[in-house]
Every structure is written in structure tokens, then in C-alpha cells.
Amino acid sequence: MVADLLKILKDANRIVISTHTRPDGDAIGSQVALGHFLRAKGKEVWMINADPVPYNLEWIRGSSDVRVYDHSLELVEAIASADAVVIVDTNALNRLGKPGNQFIGSGGKKVLIDHHTDPEDWFDVSHRRETASSTGELLYELMAAWDLDGITSDVAAALYAAIMTDTGSFRFSNVSPALHRMTAVLLERTELTPADMHSLVYDRKSAEGMRLMAAVLSSLQLHFEGVVGTMQVTRKMLADTGAPVEETDGFVNMLLTIEGVQVALIMTETAKGTKISFRSKGGWEVHKWAQSMGGGGHRNASGAFVQDSLDNTFTSVLASAPDFLNLDQPESSSELSAEDADYLAMLGGG
What we know:
This protein is α/β, with parallel strands linked by helices and about 350 residues long. It has helices spanning about 1-10, 25-40, 75-80, 100-105, 135-145, 155-165, 175-190, 195-200, 205-215, 235-240, 250-255, 285-290, 310-325, 340-345; strands at about 15-20, 45-50, 65-70, 85-90, 110-115, 125-130, 220-225, 230-235, 265-270, 275-280, 295, 300-305.
């Protein structure tokens, strides 16, 4: 498959690269790294997303070239006439947002580079591995197979950012010795240090963002004998603090630092519904749970969007927890607390 994918990219002249809505570090880092690499090969590259680059990723050189899809004739024609449309870090049409149908309708080959589960079947060729730490890791493999010298300083920095953010700064279970060897090559090829890149991504909180963090932390609840932790982000919190919703990135991971918490959820209220972020440790898989609500992702990191109020979503998500979590695992008690048992009984959940 790698050879087939590389042939498509080598033969293509105009290439469109896109990623999922509300892009994170792996999405933008992978997209921009591939954009740099292909332009150096003489390709005409368009990077088109539904949403803008988050402010804490704007330091990645080339991120300013990412265009937000606006239905303009220029972008419509660029997509329609592309020889290849490359989707990175997501594998579902509904995660591409506004330009998704345009990508499907393009006459170009549809290429997937991704590490999520259960890909849709509209791609012509893919490079995909669920056990990969990140899409950045998969892109490194492709670039190394094509031309290792094509991994310039800008490409290396973008790939490092992609890998760093999707591995929780190299602390998640998806980190391997081989990945560390790969990142060593990247560090040798860029002038930025790990400290530089970590600071640029994570140390740019505003005063408003810190106030938002305090408000969100005040919503913390533990469920099922402390195995599941939840927090909520309301529109009122955002309005009262003046912080952008992007400042909530990473909040959900704080729940997993609580002793005993194996599964963490943060639910964010929006004008059209509720966004849910699922995170978990080890064998506590959450991707099927997210899929049941129209979302998806990794076994330990998934997301979903529900077109319902925050209160209703919170209630329904917790009610379904026993359907998707083995609450009899050794890490937790096999008994529900009286509070959770009463809560599920009230919902008809047993």
C-alpha cells in the first residue's frame, strides 16, 4: 500500500491536503509537514480545512498557508481539479466539516493517512495503522521511504509537534523505542529544541484561559467508585471568562491524573449541541462508546458530537457507561456506589 500511495503522490501535480474539524497538533503538524515536503518536490499544494489553525500551533512554519473553506470559487475549483486529495488524522466524512462533500466529489484519488479505528471505505489508498502513536509517525515512514533528505528543518519541526501532542509529550502507552529513535532523527534535522516546541504548544495560556480552567475544574465529578471522572464546559463559562474554547485543549487529561480515575470525559456546550472528549488508561477502551454517539477515534482517546443540550447529553452518556465499560475490571470496584446505582435506576438503567 505504501508503494501505491507514493506513486499517486509522485504522479500528482495538484494535491489538496485536509484534516478534521477543530484540528489539534497531530492534524496541523501532519498537514503542514506533508505540505512542505510535497512543495519541495515541485507539487502544487493546497491545504484546506473547515476550521482555522489554533493559536498555539501558529508557530509551525507554513501553518499560515492553511485556508479555511469558505465556499469560494477558488477553493471549490482547487478541490475539483486536484489530482489527489489527502486526508490526514481522520477517516470519516462527518469529521471533515464543510468541505467534506467537495472532497468526495473531487475527481482526484482519495488518499488516507491516519491511525484511527474503523476507516470509511471511500478512500482509494491508505497508509493506516491503529498502533501508530500519531499520524506524524506514519508520515515520517512515508517520507523516509520516498526521500529522507526531504525531511527538512520545517518538516521535522512540524512532525515533531504532531508526535509530541498525540503522545502527551511522550508519556502515553503508544510511545515505543522505535518512536524515540524516529524523533531523534527529527531533532537532528531542526534547529528547535524539545523545550522550545513544548513551550510554544503548551505554555501559551492566557489569563482568561486560566480563569476558564478554574471554572471547569469546579464542575469536576467522580462516578462509579471514582473510575470515571467528568467535567463540563458551559457557554456561560466561556462568556464569563472571555476565553476561547481552544483553551480547553488538554483539560480532559487532567482528570486522568486523579488517583483511581481510569476514564475521563469532558463535555463542551456549543450553540448546536454538545462535544464530548473521551480519554482513558490502558485497557479501558472508549472508542466504541464514542462510536455509539456518532463519533470515534482511538481506543484510549475518542470524541463525539451530540445534537442535544449539555444536561441531556451528560445524563445519557453516564447512563450508557456500563454498556461500554467493564466496571468489574480489577482497577475498580465491582459494586456501584449507592449514588450511581440510584442514578442509573432513575434513568431506567438498572
